[in-house]
Structures are given as C-alpha cells and as structure tokens.
C-alpha cells in the first residue's frame, strides 16, 4: 500500500472517529492510532464494519509495560484488511486497576489474545467470557512480563514423588555466592590474563610458515 493511500485512509478514519482518537501516526508505512480507553470498542467496531476500512482480521493483541508512567500498560491491537491489503495498529493505555473493554464480541480470536495479556501483564478485560491464565499455572503469582517482576520469579515448582503432586517452594539459587567473569577472552581482554592465555602467541608474519608447494596435476 502506497504512502498516499495510507495517509488518505488515516485522514478518513480520523475524520470519522475524531472524538475517540488521541493520536495518529504513520511509522514504517503503517498507520497507528492511540484511542481513548472508553471508546475502544466503538472504534474497533468502526474499523470492522466500515466498507472503506473492512478490517475483518485481528492478527494479534500484545502488551507493553512502562512502569514509570501513570498509565503504565499499553495494549496493542494489530488488524489486517484482506480486501484492501493494508494494516492498522490500535493502541490503548491503562493502569493496574482500570479494565479495558473486551472485543471478543467483535473478533472471536481475541479470547485467547486477551487471556495472554491478562496472564502476562495483569490487564483486566471487561465482559470477557472466560478470563483465566493461559500460559502460566493456575496457582501462579504475579505477571511475568511486568518490568518489576523478578527474573527468578517468586516460587519454583517440582513434582514431589512422596506427595505424588506438583509442589511450590521458595526460589533457591545454589550459586548465589560464586563470582562470575562474563568477559570473553575472545574479545581482546587485556586487563588480566586467563589460564591458557600463555599458549596463544601470535606468529610473526612470514615466520615459520610452510614452504609453498605447487600441486601436481
């Protein structure tokens, strides 16, 4: 889709849905809108049903976390129009306590996409028919893709042969007090010598090279 067509589509959507739009942008040839949270479902309905837009396919829903901002979470919707062969990206912002309207009534595939965002980021979706965790266990605590979630997690699980079930235990790091040197000796480290460095001596140019022998036919 040409840049002119993208711009024309953006102007059409902006003119039709101006009260719902907070920001419009074009990046890498793709149209992007940031919309008001309370107008999300109405905006998505327009993109789905309007003949000029005709975005019948929801490609995915993903999230992003900006913990330094008041509305730290960004929910991102990627849509595709097969009829017109162009895409649009819709973004909405929210915080930890405010829910976002579900669009499962518009796109059935949004069911699992929204469940994943809930599982990974903790963003709640209003009117979702079955908002349960999708990728983590039912007893999992926290939301792993939040920036403030520890890399080691809060608990670890294992199968206990005695109890014949999966049990949760506090995280144990057996190498807490070991010192690791993450500097690779193959990247020209000069501040210290590692064992074996004494064997790596650069030969002088032209020295101790085997004589050239012409191969016989």
Distance between the termini: 59 Å
- How are helices and strands ordered from N to C? HEEHEEEEHEEE
CATH architecture call of the domain at 3-130: 2-Layer Sandwich
Number of DSSP helical runs: 3
- The amount of beta strand, in percent, is 25-35%
Poorly predicted parts: none
Radius of gyration: 28 Å
CATH-defined superfamily of the domain at 3-130: NADH:ubiquinone oxidoreductase Nqo5 subunit
- What is the CATH domain class of the domain at 3-130? Alpha Beta
Which descriptor suits the 3D outline?
elongated
Kindly report the CATH topology of the domain at 3-130: Beta Polymerase, domain 2
What profile does the largest beta sheet have?
A: 5 strands, mixed
Oligomer: single chain
Total beta strands: 9
Structure description:
- The structure is a single chain.
- By secondary structure, the protein is an alpha/beta fold.
- The protein has helices at residues 3-16, 40-49, 110-121; strands spanning 21-27, 30-35, 57-65, 73-81, 86-94, 100-101, 125-126, 155-160, 165-170.
- The strands form three sheets. It has a five-stranded mixed beta sheet, covered by helices on one side. The chain has a two-stranded parallel ribbon with strand order 6-7. Strands 8-9 form a two-stranded antiparallel ribbon.
- The N and C termini lie far apart (59 Å).
- The relative contact order is 0.09.
- The model has no long low-confidence stretch (mean pLDDT 85).
């Amino acid at each position: 889709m040409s840049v002119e067509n993208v711009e024309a589509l953006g102007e059409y959507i902006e003119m039709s849905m101006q009260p719902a739009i907070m920001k419009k942008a074009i990046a890498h040839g793709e149209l992007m809108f940031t919309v008001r949270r309370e107008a999300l479902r109405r905006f998505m309905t327009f993109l789905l049903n309007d003949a000029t837009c005709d975005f019948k396919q929801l490609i995915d829903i993903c999230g992003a976390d900006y913990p330094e901002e008041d509305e730290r979470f960004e929910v991102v919707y990627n849509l595709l129009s097969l009829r017109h062969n162009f895409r649009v990206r819709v973004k909405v912002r929210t915080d930890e306590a405010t829910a976002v309207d579900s669009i499962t009534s518009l796109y059935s595939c949004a069911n699992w996409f929204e469940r994943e965002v809930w599982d990974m980021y903790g963003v709640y979706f209003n009117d979702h028919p079955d908002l349960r965790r999708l990728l983590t266990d039912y007893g999992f605590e926290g939301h792993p893709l939040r920036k403030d979630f520890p890399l080691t997690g809060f608990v670890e699980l294992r199968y206990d042969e005695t109890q014949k079930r999966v049990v949760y235990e506090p995280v144990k790091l057996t190498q807490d007090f070991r010192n690791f040197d993450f500097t690779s000796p193959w990247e020209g480290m000069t501040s210290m010598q590692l064992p074996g460095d004494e064997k790596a001596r650069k030969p002088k140019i032209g020295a101790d090279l085997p004589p050239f022998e012409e191969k016989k036919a």
